[in-house]
Request: fold
Amino acid sequence: MNWIIIAVVAISAPVSAQWLKYPTPGIPRTADGKPNMSAPAPRMPDGKPDFSGIWVTADGKYLPNLALDGVEVPFQPWAAALYKERQANHGMGRPSERCLTHGVTDFDALGTPRRFLQTPTMMVIIFEAYNHWRQIFLDGRPLPEVIQPVYLGYSVGHWEGDTLVVDTRGFNDRGWLDDGGHPQTEALHVTERFRRPNFGHIDLQLTIDDPKAYTKPWTVKLSGFNYFADQELMESICENEKDVAHMVGK
Amino acid sequence: MMKWTIFAAVVICAPVSAQWLNYPTPGIPRLPNGKPNLEAPAPKTADGKPDLSGLYDIDNGRLFQDIAADIRPQDFPIQPWAAALAKQREQDMRKDDPYSHCLPPGVPRIDSGNRPFKIIQTPGLIAILYETGYLFRQIFTDGRPLPKDPEPTWLGYSVGKWEGDTLVVDTIGFHDKGWLDGNKGHPQTDALHVTERFRRVNFGHLEIQSTIDDPKAYTKPFTVKQTLHLLADSEILENICNENEKDAPHLVGK
Reply:
């Protein structure tokens, strides 16, 4: 009798799997075992939407150009000229060619998996690309007085109904908003609006407000993210960098 | 008259938009003078486990430069080839230390960095956000096994389980490019298996005891200990090593 029970248990036990195939515990699934992307979005104990999970960019087409869908970008004249120059040079000089990090807007557009880890006071986003992280404070603190401008800024979030509104300031002027080279300055204020309409998708809208580079704020809707089940982030360190020599301009 | 007085009082009380480097950490035990009470009991999560969440700073980062700093040379179980390699690296003054080239420190070296890290403990997953290298680690506490054939990495693959009040973290899946430390250049190989034992002694103090087991480089496992203190009212910051990197041409060997 014992022998039969042991055999049954052994067959049911999961194979010590590669983490790239390890089933995500506790998610809604359809009858065939696939994640149920149309299921309702889960909620935190306090009723707020829960964005936790691994997500992958639905479509990487916005990385070269946030304004791909045709919004008229209200450039200041110097910024229009700089953008034109960067376009003519095929994006040469962008920070990521030298293993420097992306910023908020280009990480939102970049086709890399990312994990959202949500607690009542904090949203952490960890990116597969670069192994970098963002902290978004949900504890009511104000944006800080910035003495050290950085690539990823300083972020706070608050809820407007089921939408997580994230304000970020404290950017440097070295980052590019996208790989095509939309400029930014230290005056940049980015607003991200995240919504999870169902289990399988996050909608994302960005507002870029940088009065030194643009005459007024402009808003774009990106592709958002799809839930990436039964997967895990892999380490991705920008090393063995060989592209720089090939980045030639016009 | 009255209204003006009230208005002035309100203005004086309103928080100044502060540097996050001195923003008061909400919800921590404090002494009557307002300082954090580092001797308070360690907090627990809803399921009764110790809660390791917090921002920590290393008490003494000597292990970052020499993992064997607290081990007598005659007791350090290094293989002869590894000792020879370490000697050569030491003479070359960290010229080839990956960390000198903005590549990640490995495990447990990254815990000894002189920049703080933040532990965020959630059910099934503990994330550690490091200012050192601006990197994260994930420690899975959801019962999954270590992977059988992992792709070799700088930071490995980590699973954790509780033994009483101690979180025991096993990490494998390293390649041999990492150095266990800086000044001494102690090597590692792809056989490396690190066991970190995290224990939150009280609210303000964390101990990490790490056992390094790499049979290709060391004749037997050896154990080192690091202690850290909670860094209240502060924050971890972005740290992009490659920005304005000017040291590389100055890294000359002997």
